[in-house]
Amino acid sequence: MENAYDRRERTIYVSGMHRSVTEEHLYDLFQKAGPIEKVILKENQDGSPQHALVVFKNVDSVMYSIAYLQATQIGDLSINIRPL
């Protein structure tokens, strides 16, 4: 059975997103790093993205996404990625 520690190890925190970013954009981008369990996008009061959590199905996808997708440009901003 999965525990909270396991899910936390499979999760990344994404910030610095362009205001046009949606959950679908993030899903499409991060599925390049591996299979995704879910994407959670938190928004500011004006509806712009504040930060997101991407939960992968395996731990290896976390390091892959940090190594290869860090600073990916969306619009005129580069996203920041870190482990949760």
Set out the fold topology.
Elements: H1 4-9, E1 11-15, H2 23-30, E2 36-43, E3 49-56, H3 60-69, E4 73-74, E5 77-78, E6 80-83
Antiparallel strand pairs: 1-3, 1-6, 2-3, 4-5
Summarize the structure in words:
The protein has one domain: Alpha-Beta Plaits, CATH 3.30.70.330. The strands form 2 sheets. The protein has a 4-stranded antiparallel sheet. A two-stranded antiparallel ribbon has the order 4-5. It has 3 helices and 6 strands; from the N terminus they run H-E-H-E-E-H-E-E-E. The protein is globular. The model has no long low-confidence stretch (mean pLDDT 92). 21% of the residues are buried. The protein is of the alpha+beta class and 84 residues long. A hairpin with a 5-residue loop joins strand 2 and strand 3.
Characteristics:
alpha+beta; Alpha-Beta Plaits; 4-stranded antiparallel sheet; two-stranded antiparallel sheet; RRM domain-containing protein; NEXT_complex_subunit; single-stranded RNA binding; RRM_dom; RBD_domain_sf
Stretches with pLDDT under 50, minimum 5 residues: none
Mean pLDDT: 92
- Assign the CATH topology: Alpha-Beta Plaits
Count the helices. How many? 3
Please identify the top-level CATH class: Alpha Beta
Strand order in space, largest sheet: 2-3-1-6
Content of β-strand:
25-35%
Please compute the radius of gyration using only Cα atoms.
12 Å
Integer tally of domains: 1
Largest sheet: 4 strands, antiparallel
- Assigned CATH superfamily: RRM (RNA recognition motif) domain
Basic shape: globular
Q: Could you tell me the number of beta strands?
A: 6
SSE class: alpha+beta
Any idea what the CATH architecture is? 2-Layer Sandwich
Give the proportion of residues in helices: 25-40%
- Give, in order, the helices and strands: HEHEEHEEE
Distance between the termini: 21 Å
Keywords: Nucleus, RNA-binding
Pfam family, one: RRM_1
Main location: nucleus
Protein name: RRM domain-containing protein
